[in-house]
């Protein structure tokens, strides 16, 4: 049954390039008003050779993005980008940048999230060590590489509109500000297990293949079956390569001294805002908070990459991942599908975390 009552109007964010002539912007807004559009915000972005006008507009039900583009073209303009908008887009850019910087200073794990907010990017990810290419980005201006003072490469992507030099300058200024304040930009994270053992969470790479092979050799048959749902004992070299260099995702490893004791994967699915995750923790390191720290790191990465849902497939008797997500402060929803449990995890931490007696890892140097 269709819901009754009024449909909530949609809000769109448009970037428009107009001829540099008096009244051009006014004529566009009048044209939009004739289509029952309500302009909520307006910003002017300098670009080489002119400006781009960014308009946040609320439209009547049934009005399509193509109708908005047609209205702009009718006044001689060109729509260089359009995407869904929400109330956060009503905040002016300097306020958004200051708020993002404050969040990053308070929570160093949210640096990528802060950069994503400043750039209005679809995703911000840290390249693995030695990573150079951006195979998914073949449109000039739609991706940007940012280099931190520590030498870390951060890649931002945005499909709905090319980045402007003003936006990239803001992002670079944010990185410099965080460096000056002592806030670590994206890099390996030191954590302590629940019993005080020091570990490092970092991106996995091809150089970890031997260490990950040893990790699998130390895991019990039960742990491997829980992860792969089959009787895997050893992994072929090509599997190790895909584990550590997935073509559509990223891998995080937990290392203690010279041993990799756990790894987690984040793989993009066919649904744009969803990613599949998986965890493998060595038997001797289970129930010591390592999985909680690893899942929290993957959630941070997913949130910065623009994912709204993390999906894991578990055996029907498997409840460990749900408990791990609860300890990490992440909400879950579970349903049975094709004989497996489909665990849906929201990567944004819940406002109030439920206290738990279970152990968890903590950031090194904190209480």
UniProtKB/TrEMBL annotation:
<feature type="region of interest" description="Disordered">
    <location>
        <begin position="347"/>
        <end position="367"/>
    </location>
</feature>
<dbReference type="InterPro" id="IPR050832">
    <property type="entry name" value="Bact_Acetyltransf"/>
</dbReference>
<dbReference type="GO" id="GO:0016747">
    <property type="term" value="F:acyltransferase activity, transferring groups other than amino-acyl groups"/>
</dbReference>
<feature type="domain" description="ACT">
    <location>
        <begin position="13"/>
        <end position="90"/>
    </location>
</feature>
<dbReference type="InterPro" id="IPR000182">
    <property type="entry name" value="GNAT_dom"/>
</dbReference>
<dbReference type="Pfam" id="PF00583">
    <property type="entry name" value="Acetyltransf_1"/>
</dbReference>
<keyword id="KW-0012">Acyltransferase</keyword>
<dbReference type="InterPro" id="IPR045865">
    <property type="entry name" value="ACT-like_dom_sf"/>
</dbReference>
<feature type="domain" description="N-acetyltransferase">
    <location>
        <begin position="199"/>
        <end position="355"/>
    </location>
</feature>
<dbReference type="InterPro" id="IPR002912">
    <property type="entry name" value="ACT_dom"/>
</dbReference>
<dbReference type="InterPro" id="IPR016181">
    <property type="entry name" value="Acyl_CoA_acyltransferase"/>
</dbReference>
<protein>
    <submittedName>
        <fullName>Acetyltransferase (GNAT) family protein</fullName>
    </submittedName>
</protein>
<keyword id="KW-0808">Transferase</keyword>
């Amino acid at each position: 049954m269709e819901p009754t009552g009024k449909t909530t109007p949609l809000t769109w964010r448009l970037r428009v390039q107009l001829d540099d002539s008096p009244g051009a912007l006014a004529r566009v807004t009048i044209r939009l008003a004739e289509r029952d559009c309500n302009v909520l915000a307006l910003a002017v972005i300098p670009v080489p050779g002119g400006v781009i006008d960014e308009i946040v507009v609320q439209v009547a039900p049934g009005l399509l993005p193509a109708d908005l583009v047609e209205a702009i073209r009718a006044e001689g303009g060109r729509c260089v980008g359009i995407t869904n908008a929400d109330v956060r887009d009503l905040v002016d850019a300097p306020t958004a940048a200051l708020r993002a910087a404050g969040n990053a200073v308070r929570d160093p794990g949210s640096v990528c999230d802060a950069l994503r907010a400043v750039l209005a990017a679809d995703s911000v990810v840290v390249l693995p060590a030695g990573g150079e290419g951006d195979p998914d980005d073949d449109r000039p201006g739609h991706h940007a590489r940012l280099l931190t003072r520590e030498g870390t490469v951060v890649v931002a992507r945005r499909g709905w509109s090319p980045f402007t030099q003003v936006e990239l300058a803001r992002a670079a200024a944010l990185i410099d500000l965080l460096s000056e304040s002592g806030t670590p930009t994206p890099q390996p994270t030191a954590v302590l297990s629940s019993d005080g053992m020091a570990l490092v969470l970092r991106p996995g790479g091809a150089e970890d293949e031997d260490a990950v092979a040893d990790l699998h050799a130390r895991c019990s048959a039960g742990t491997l079956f829980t992860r792969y749902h089959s009787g895997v004992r050893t992994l072929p070299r090509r599997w190790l390569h895909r584990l550590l260099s997935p073509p559509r995702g990223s891998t995080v490893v937990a290392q203690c001294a010279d041993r990799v004791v756990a790894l987690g994967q984040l793989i993009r699915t066919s649904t744009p805002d969803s990613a599949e995750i998986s965890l493998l923790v060595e038997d001797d390191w289970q129930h010591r908070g390592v999985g909680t720290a690893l899942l929290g790191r993957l959630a941070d990465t997913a949130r910065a990459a623009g994912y709204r849902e993390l999906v894991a497939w578990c055996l029907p008797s498997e409840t460990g991942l749900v408990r791990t997500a609860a300890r990490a402060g992440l909400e879950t929803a579970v349903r049975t599908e094709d004989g497996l449990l489909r665990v849906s995890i929201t990567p944004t931490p819940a406002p109030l975390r439920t206290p738990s007696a279970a152990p968890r890892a903590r950031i090194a140097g904190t209480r």
